[in-house]
Amino acid sequence: MINFHDVTFAYPHARPVFDRFNWSVERGAAWAVIGGSGNGKTTLLMMLAGLRLLTSGQIVVDDQVIDRPRPRTGLVLQEYGLLPWATIQQNVALGLRVRDFYGPDGRHAPIEHVAGPIDPQVEKWLKRLGIDAIRVRYPSQISGGQRQRAAIARTLVLDPDLLLMDEPFAALDAATREDLQNLTIELQREQNLTLVVVTHNIEDAVFLGQKILVLAHPPHTSPVIIDNPAAGEPGYRSQAAFFEKCAQLRAALEAPVHA
Amino acid sequence: MRKRDLISTTLAVLLIWQLIAMLVNRDILPTPVAVAQAFVENFAEIAKHFIASGLRVIVSIIIAVALAVPAGLGMGQIPRLNRIFSPLVYLAYPIPKIVFFPIILLFFGATEFSKILIIVLILFFQILVPVRDDSLNLRPELLNSVKSLGAGRRALFRFVYLPSAFPIVLTAVRLSVGTAVAVLYFAEVTATYLGLGYYIFLMSSTLFDYAATYAGAIAMGLLGLCLYFFIDWLEKRLCPWKFAT
Chain B partners of A86 at a C-beta cutoff of 8 Å? Predict the structure, then answer.
């Protein structure tokens, strides 16, 4: 589904963050990407989303070289990115309105996009995410968890096959966080989504990522991957295996820099 | 602002005015009662000038918004445009544009165009600068998340930049209404026979009808207030999210 071919990325006048980096993700897999701040995890996600150009190399998603946002890739950000002047319903409908605005051009909207009534689709996702009661509210009037649900609904209404999330739970309290993590896994399985979640939080990564990409010390040349097949299972958070995996991940993050 | 507070403040001001006028007891400070009488007696005349002034200032505001908003959004979105025009704006912004009025009169004569041009010139920069700064400062998460929904430049303009500019434009216009009416007075004193500025000047300096002068001044104040209230109303309609609690 996702293939990184010799991806190199450097900010101007700085040493590369990724240096001929190769990585691949299978369709339907749930990945977590973890690393400290400044280690390039958000850069990786932005490149994958088509919002940041590579210095060299190629990212291919579903046989398509990524040089701009791909219509079937959904992106959910830490700060939600909801329009403050639009109600929750309008925010959830935004992607569909953008698609209708351009028509099925294959660049901004999938070639098979058919302009149809927006409301029933929006309605379905408002209900599925449990935010139909607050549809007429503005983002400033609802809680962080509800805003994140709205951001997820806005993405899923576009029927993505790849969902990218950047620190989606960072600003939430513990209970809301677990609740939304469960929901994310549920939706990932239900919609057969390929999921890439970027986080700095070890527990988030271990609960969500069946595979975990560790970005410890840039420049990243080859991927450091931890297998975590039990991710997302109910009750995993309180099992010994979970804590062992967290310890393993912590050790990987703190491993000394290779010469 | 509660209506009751507005009314009680107005009554208090009128009462203090009445007391001072009675104490001073001179022609050049008529009582509010006398001014109200003059207002009623000259109502048709004042209304004629009020409409002329109102049309001028409204047309000027519309033209200034129509020019400054696209220019500001363009400069905010297209770095090259901003690089070229920002120094010009930086130099022109602090210049009191009113000093160009005599020159505008020389070029275009005592026409309607001259009067509207000077108001547009002043309002243009007061709207342009905040609109540009706002669109430069839109949060990258907001832009990225909308881009990820498929939005290119046109859709970003339609769904993000334009609606985000509404409150900025309304605030800029609200702050400029006072200036616009002041400039209007100046423009109408010098170059017309129609408008509240002309009426006030004529009553005070030529006919020495002080009560009518005050009535004209009050009409001009009402013009500013009406515009102010209209913008408040417009903001509630266009930006309901700002009032959501």
Answer: 163, 241
Closest Cβ opposite residue A98 in set B151, B166, B241 = B151
Residue among A171, A249, A166, A172 nearest A207 (CA)? A249
The three-state DSSP-derived secondary structure of chain A is CEEEEEEEECCCCCCCCEEEEEEEECCCCEEEEECCCCCCHHHHHHHHHCCCCCCEEEEEECCEECCCCCCCEEEECCCCCCCCCCCHHHHHHHHHHHHHHHCCCCCCCCCCCCCCCCHHHHHHHHHHCCCHHHCCCCHHHCCHHHHHHHHHHHHHCCCCCEEEEECCCCCCCHHHHHHHHHHHHHHHHHCCCEEEEEECCHHHHHHHCCEEEECCCCCECCCEEEECCCCCCCCHHHCHHHHHHHHHHHHHHHCCCCC
The pLDDT tens digits for B125-156 are 999 999 999 888 888 888 888 998 889 888 99
Q: Regarding beta strands A224-227 and A162-166, do their DSSP bridges make them parallel or antiparallel, or are they unpaired? A: unpaired
**Which of B134, B148, B129, B137 has the alpha carbon at shortest distance from B64?**
B129
Question: Which of B138, B142, B148, B239 is the best substitution to test chain A (most A C-beta atoms within 10 A)?
Answer: B148
The secondary structure of A18-39 as a DSSP string is EEEEEEEE-TT-EEEEE--TTS
pLDDT in tens, B76-92: 888 899 999 999 999 99
pLDDT 10s digits, B189-232: 876 789 999 999 999 888 889 999 999 999 999 999 999 999 99
Q: In one letter, which amino acid is A77?
A: L
Question: Side chain identity at B234, as an amino acid letter?
Answer: L
Residue A172 φ then ψ, to 5°: -105, 155
Check if A102 contacts B (Cβ < 8 Å). yes
| Contact with chain B for residue A99, Cβ under 8 A | yes
Q: Are A99 and A109 in contact (CB under 8 A)?
A: yes
For residue A76, the chain B residue with the least C-alpha distance is B145
User: Whole-model pTM?
Assistant: 0.82
* Record: fold of B31-243: MetI-like fold (1.10.3720)
Count Cα atoms within 13 angstroms, Cβ side, for A56: 4
CB contact under 8 A, B163 and A85: yes
Range scoring the smallest mean pLDDT among A41-50, A71-80, B214-223: A71-80
Q: CA–CA separation, B150 vs A74, rounded Å?
A: 10
Q: Which domains does chain A have, with CATH numbers?
A: 27-54+68-72+162-259 (3.40.50.300), 82-159 (no CATH)
